[in-house]
Amino acid sequence: MDAKVLGRFPAGSPRGSWPAEEFAAARRAEGEPAEVVMDLRSDAFLVVVPAQDED
Asked: Residue 20: which residues within 8 A CB-CB, separation 6 or more?
């Protein structure tokens, strides 16, 4: 998956994925197709958007 990371949130946070979900929702409200994924290697939730093809 080619994606641009907009934000990184620790999975060990007391609120879990909520901060990442809230950040992604705010980006979607601005028109970006943001989604939350889990990066198991870094134990973090990432907010990503698909990479843009630069022609």
From this structure: 7, 9, 36, 45, 46, 47
